[in-house]
Amino acid sequence: MRDTASGPRVLLKRLRELMQEPLEPQERLDRIVRDIAANMVAEVCSLYVLRADSVLELYATEGLNPNAVHLAQLRLGEGLVGTIAASARPLNLSNAQEHPAFAYLPETGEEIYNSFLGVPVLRAGRTLGVLVVQNKTMRHYRDDEVEALETTAMVIAEMIATGDLARLTRPGLELDLRRPVSFTGLSFNEGVGLGHVVLHEPRIVVTNLFNEDSDEEIKRLDASLGSLRLSIDDMLERREVAFEGEHRQVLEAYRMFANDSGWVRRLEEAIRNGLTAEAAVEKVQSDMRARMLHMTDPYLRERMSDFDDLANRLLRQLMGRGPDDVAASLPKDAIIVARSMGAAELLDYPRDKLRGLVLEDGAATSHVVIVARAMGIPVAGQMRGAVSMAENGDAIIVDGEEGAIHLRPQPDLEAAYAEKVRFRARRQEVYRELRKKPSVTKDGVQVDLLMNAGLAVDLPQLAEAGAAGIGLFRTELQFMVASTFPRAEAQERLYRDVLDAARGKPVTFRTIDIGGDKVLPYFKDTIQEENPALGWRAIRLTLDRPGLLRTQIRALLKACGGRELKLMLPMVTELGEIAQAREIIDREVRHLSRFAHHLPTSLKLGAMLEVPSLLFQLDELMKAVDFVSVGSNDLFQFVMAVDRGNTQLSDRFDALSTPFLRVLKQIADAGVRNQTPVTLCGELAGKPISAMALIGLGYRSISMSPASIGPVKAMLTELPLAELETFFDDNLMAPVQGLPMRALLQAFADDRSIPL
C-alpha cells in the first residue's frame, strides 16, 4: 500500500532546502514549481500572484510557455484561477475546459491539458495568489495531493509576505499585500494619528515551517493543546474573565474549538505532511478563516473571530510568546488595531508611544473608548476587516474626525494628512493660549468648563487643559484595571493624589459605578441579566453590597481630611436611595470621628440624574441634595429607548433633538428655581455645538474630556449668549417642524462666525 504522506513530506523537505539556498526570487520560484510538478507527477505547475489592481499575474510556471511569465494575467473572478482567488476555495477538476469559468489564455499554451487542481495561496485567510497543477490525462486529484499543494501554497504565502517577490514586480505595479486600503466607520474620538500598525492580538509570524520529527511535533501540539484547554476550563470554572452573557459565550466557543476533534485531526495531518506544530496551526487557521469568510450564516462568520483568537493563543503557547514581547518592540508611533479590547488592556501600552486606536467593534461610549479619550488619542471604530488586512508595521493613518483609516497610504495622501496634523497642532497652540483667559461668553457670562477623569494618568491634563476642576471622577476605573478589589489604602492614596493634583480646584467623586457593561473579573456576585443597563448596577448594587460602599466612603473621608469632599451617587432612581446612602456616610463619619481621624471641612452630597423617573420629582430631588449632575449618556439612552452600545442605532437618534433638549431645559430650570447647582457631564458636553446648546439652555457648569476643553472654550468666548437664549425662546417650545434643531444651531453659529 502506498504511503500517501511520503510525497508531501519529500516535497516539503525539498522546499526547505530550496528556501535555505542563496537564490534570486525568480530562480527560487522556478525551482519550486519544477519540484512540485515532479513530486506530484504533473505536467504543469504554475503560480499566479495577486496584484494590488486585482489582477492575477503568472509569476512562475513549469510546463506552460515560459515567455508568458509576468505577461499572462487574469482579473479577480475571471477564469478558473480568478474564481479560486475570489472564493478562496480549491478547484479539483478532471476536465477543466468543461467548467463554466474556464478562460483560455493563448499565450500560455494550456489548451492541451484537461485535469486541473488549483488552491489559493492564503495568509490569515486573505488570498495572495493561486497555485495550480495540470495534466493532459483526465483524472481527479487525491485528497493527499490537494493537502500537499495547500501546504506548499502556505510556504509561498510566507515568501510573498516577507517581501521576497517585490523585486519581481514591474514598475508602477504592486502586490495585493501592499495595496493601499481605506475603511470608513465611525468617529469615536477626534484627532488625527499617523503611525505604524500594532496588532493588539499580534499575528504570530512562523519562521520554522518544516519539521524534522513528526511524532515529536505532535507531542508538542498535544502538550500545548492540553495547556490551552486547562486555561480555558479554569477561566470558566473561576469565571475569571467575564462572568455571564456574551463574554461567557466567547469562552464556551473557545472550549468548543479547543476540543473539536476535526480541528485537531487537521492539525495532526498537516504535521504528518511535514510541517512544524506552529506552521500546522497557521495553515489550518488560514484555511478555516478563508472558508468561514465566504459563509452566509452571520453566526458562523462571527465565530470566525473566536477561532482566530483561539488559534493565536495556541500559537503563543507553542512559541513561548507573551504580551511583554509586544510592548518591548512597540514603535514610537504605535497605532493599535484590534477587534475589541478592554480598558485595562489599552492601559498596558505605554502612553508616550500611542498615536491612535482602531477598533473593528465597540461604541463611542464603551469603556476602552472613554479611556482612550482621556488619554487624548484619536479613535476610529466599526472598521470591519481592518485586522485581517493589516500587518504589524504597516503605515496607517487614523482620521478620528471623519471616522476613517487609511492602511499603507499613498505618499500624496500621507502628505495631506501630515499637513492636517500640523494644522491641528497650530490650533492646539491657540487652545493653549486660551487656558489662562477667563471662561466667559462674549457678553460676559461665566461658564465653568470642568474635565472628566478616572485614573492617575488623567491628572496632568487638569493643568494642561486649563479645566476649572474635575466635574466627574469615575472611581470605578481603578477597580476595572485591577486584578482584585483595590484595598482601602490604595483607594485612599489615589483619592489623595487626585486632590493634590487639583491644587484646590473642585473635584467631584462618583461612587463606584459597576454592573451592566462595567464588569469586574473578580466580582463573584455578578448575575446574568436580560437588560443589564436597566439592572443591578451603580447605586442599586452598592446599597445591596454596603461593604463595598462603606470601604470607599471611608477611604474618601480620610483622603479629604482638611478639604471639601464632593460625593456623587450614580443612577439614582428614587429619593429613598439617597437617604440610604446618607445613613452609610453618616455612620462612617461617626466611626472616623470616634478614632479622631482628620475629616473633610465640608461634605456635599449630589446625585446623578440619569434615570427618567427623577424628571417627575425634580423639585424634591433638588431639595434632597447639595448638587445635581446630569449623566447625558444614560439619560439620553433611557429617554429615547436607545441602547447606546448598539451600533445599528449609533447614528439614528440625535441628542440635540428637540424632545431631549426640552428635558435638559426642565432640569436646568429646576436647578435655578431651587438654587441647586447643576452640572452636565457626558459626551454631550464635549462637542462645541452641543456645549453651545447646553449653555443656551441654562447650564453654567459642564464637564468633558480634557481634549474637548480647548475647542469648547474657543466657541464659548465667541458666543453671544443673550442672542442664543432668544433663539431657544423662539424655537425650543415651537411645534417640531422644518429643519432639525442641530441644523438650526449650526446656522445660528455660522451667521455669527462662532467656531464649532
Give the integer mean of the pLDDT values.
84
Distance between the termini: 79 Å
Count of individual beta strands: 22
Structural class determined from secondary elements = alpha/beta
Q: How much helix is in the residues?
A: 40-55%
Strand order of the largest sheet: 7-14-13-9-10-11-12-8
- What is the radius of gyration? 31 Å
User: How large a portion of the residues is in β-strands, by DSSP E?
Assistant: 15-25%
Q: Outline the biggest β-sheet.
A: 8 strands, mixed
| Residue runs with pLDDT of under 50 for 5 or more positions | 238-247
Tertiary shape: elongated
Oligomer: single chain
| Tally of helical runs | 27
Explained architecture:
This protein is α/β, with parallel strands linked by helices. The chain is 45% helix and 16% strand. The chain is built from 27 helices and 22 strands. Strands 7-14-13-9-10-11-12-8 form an eight-stranded mixed beta sheet. An eight-stranded parallel barrel has the order 15-16-17-18-19-20-21-22, surrounded by six helices. Helix 5 runs antiparallel to helix 6 (245-258), helix 5 (214-238) crosses helix 9 and helix 18 packs across helix 19.
